[in-house]
Amino acid sequence: MNEIKVGLLGFGTIGTGVAKLLATNADLIAAKVGAPVTLKKIADLDITTDRGISVPAGVLTTNADEVLTDPEISVVIELIGGYNPAKAFVLKAIENGKHVVTANKALLALHGAEIYAAAARKGVEVLFEAAVGGGIPVISALRGNMAANNFSTVFGILNGTCNYILTRMTKEGVDFADVLRNAQELGYAEADPTFDVEGVDTAHKLALLVSLCFGTRVNFDDIHTEGISSLSSVDIKFARDFGYKIKLLAIGKRDADGVEARVHPTMIPVSNPLADVDGVFNAIRFTGDFIGPVMFYGRGAGMDPTASAVAGDIIDIARNIMTGIGRRAAPLGYGDNAVVTLPIKPMGSIEGKYYLRFSAVDKPGVLAKISGVLGKYDISIESMVQSARMAGEEVPIVIMTHEAREEYVRKALDEIDTFDIITQKSRLIRIEDNLE
Amino acid sequence: MNEIKVGLLGFGTIGTGVAKLLATNADLIAAKVGAPVTLKKIADLDITTDRGISVPAGVLTTNADEVLTDPEISVVIELIGGYNPAKAFVLKAIENGKHVVTANKALLALHGAEIYAAAARKGVEVLFEAAVGGGIPVISALRGNMAANNFSTVFGILNGTCNYILTRMTKEGVDFADVLRNAQELGYAEADPTFDVEGVDTAHKLALLVSLCFGTRVNFDDIHTEGISSLSSVDIKFARDFGYKIKLLAIGKRDADGVEARVHPTMIPVSNPLADVDGVFNAIRFTGDFIGPVMFYGRGAGMDPTASAVAGDIIDIARNIMTGIGRRAAPLGYGDNAVVTLPIKPMGSIEGKYYLRFSAVDKPGVLAKISGVLGKYDISIESMVQSARMAGEEVPIVIMTHEAREEYVRKALDEIDTFDIITQKSRLIRIEDNLE
Prior knowledge:
Two copies of one chain form a homodimer. By secondary structure, the first copy, chain A, is α/β, with parallel strands linked by helices. The mean pLDDT of chain A is 94. Chain A folds into three domains: 4-135 and 303-339, NAD(P)-binding Rossmann-like Domain (Rossmann fold); 145-299, 2-Layer Sandwich (Dihydrodipicolinate Reductase, domain 2); 348-431, Alpha-Beta Plaits. The first copy, chain A, is elongated. Chain A contains 14 helices and 19 strands. The first copy, chain A, has helices spanning 13-24, 26-33, 65-68, 86-95, 105-122, 138-143, 160-172, 176-186, 194-197, 200-214, 233-241, 303-322, 366-376, 406-416; strands spanning 4-9, 37-43, 60-61, 73-78, 99-102, 126-127, 151-157, 216-217, 224-225, 244-255, 258-269, 281-288, 292-299, 340-341, 351-361, 381-386, 394-401, 404-405, 422-431. In chain A, the strands form three sheets. In chain A, strands 7, 9, 10, 11, 12, 13, 15, 16, 17, 18 and 19 form an eleven-stranded mixed sheet that branches. A six-stranded parallel sheet of chain A has the order 3-2-1-4-5-6, with helices on both faces. A two-stranded parallel sheet of chain A has the order 8-14. The interface between A and B is large, with 65 and 65 residues. Chains A, B: Its EC number is 1.1.1.3. Chains A, B: It holds the Pfam family NAD_binding_3. Chains A, B: InterPro entries: ACT-like_dom_sf (IPR045865), ACT_dom (IPR002912), Asp/hSer_DH_NAD-bd (IPR005106), HDH (IPR016204), HDH_cat (IPR001342), HDH_CS (IPR019811), NAD(P)-bd_dom_sf (IPR036291). Chains A, B: Keywords: Amino-acid biosynthesis, Methionine biosynthesis, NADP, Oxidoreductase, Threonine biosynthesis.
């Protein structure tokens, strides 16, 4: 093989980055592969907008089939995003014996099993480093050098938009809505930010990490997903007083009882390295039975870092092609039949520590009523803060619990929220003290 | 191939960890490779000491040739360390067509080129993830998913013993000698700690990182190497006052003028994530032209994390064997002829900021004399601190410089140290403000 030809579906921001990287670092890549890697075709519905890079005549097409059926193209890069037509294109590429590189976490989180099975039948690789953490090489590390470990936990700060907003809320003491508006003006948040700020994007990425770490398929809808839009700057301030920062954390755990997979605002100790991950940066922390704790940190999004991940996957596949093999390993690193489907533990059964904030009228006996209900549900109090009293006015009462079972915590809050003295719905934020 | 058989040279701490991992996680590894991986032979001069794990009869031998010549063994794991007989064994394994996995940074830093050339001739892999950063998968990331980047910098905290000592000196304000003694009692430092505390181990690891990052061979003796044994707790305290922490940093840089590779105590801003890497943990931070800054963090040594890295390399090779290929990529990730030898810039030509501490008799005019010499050598002062005056006694004068050329800084210090008013040799610590 004296040249590896690849085709690109989707010429948006990331696609442009990939085209730029393959051109800029062509010599470097050729040195690492042993042959040039050439971008032969780019398919996109819009082939007129100037992307700021020059593309040879005949490379651009509006017809995806020109990529999917070209016998010279051995690797198809899917950067369209979303479910349709991305899924049909990926399956057709596989059907035509082409290896696939994709950054599409939504597609793989929901339809991964079907796509991986198709790839197994045809003996092609499906690589997706760019789907999690931008350029940070976590997926290849899990499939590759960390593969000898049984992992017990994965924690991730996986969405740059959320982390940017939380960082500014923390540093400036401002409210969610204000930071979001400013982030939109600066281009750090989409016009419709729902997918990011409600945690859906983070949950897609968690689904992939959980599959790789624990060798298990998960039903995406079973991942408990809470975003940051209802977070109050008051809670961020109280968190700091107790020695915590609030991050939108993707959490995966596995023990003998099963698998946890959840996304929600989480209080983590300020002393943990994850607490220092600020702005648009991403970080992922694993604990394996031999490697112990290990953390990866870098730019989790953006044209260039994501292109780095896509190009790394292309090099991986190109090295296979150069040595004459179809594929070396299944997408999740496990043999195709070794991946089991395990249920995710229901949130009610989770045990953890909780931050609870009650808004109550400041009257004698309020605290006795609240703590009475908590006691009834076997929830013991680690510490409590009641702000300065202004008789008859609303005051926040903050309680940090010891380990408690989530279903009892929720029942207690529901019961407390029926009291006349409670002026607003009580708030609950989960605490992860030990990120191992 | 229905079974991959490996042989182990060296049954010390790491070797025992590898044997334990291959036994404990045998099913997991088989699922990831598609066949069982079996440890067929272990060679060590001492086969009587109980390592706390059971080894089947006939596996242990004192004769390395039983590993090196066994036709069933396809992967030889070298964990003897040092140059001899490790080098002869590795070359013989390659000559016999066996793939090699090693944790031996000293061997590769000095004899890598010869070993890689032999591997190229025989078409076998030489993998060495465990040589840098214990279990942290940086080597495979550089060879693999990050391979599409031109790297401009690499910064590493690569020696757990040094970082443990520096962390305690920083937190407790105690002196080097006291912490070292205690670290030796606790088993965190060797009886003869020279290799670690004088920076030699860090320099070996830097040599490997520089080769991988920049695609260049370096002459190990050209790496400027300074350890931490002459660091004073006074300097650590002053560093904190200026917003810095002192770390033993491995520094690699590449620009159009050439390559820098150096190991020395370095002041880094407390706000940089590397400053938070405490105790026996390691971290490595890279900047690539597309990926941007990326950092890896984890346990940089110890039986289990290092075994994780060795086992990851074994899985990598086993997947090649299962797909019927000899090797996929050269040890440094570049084609064998694409690695060039570049000279390392001499330290005198380095430009940077400096912390200078002078011990002077407290007399009028002292500062004028010192700053006069600095001015003569084109070294401009960013800030200065002179401690409380006690007339006639010795006082420390600390100066932080703007960017200056090292050879001029050294000349200035040599000249200043000839003055009568100077009571001790002046101290110089390099500052890295921008770790990109």
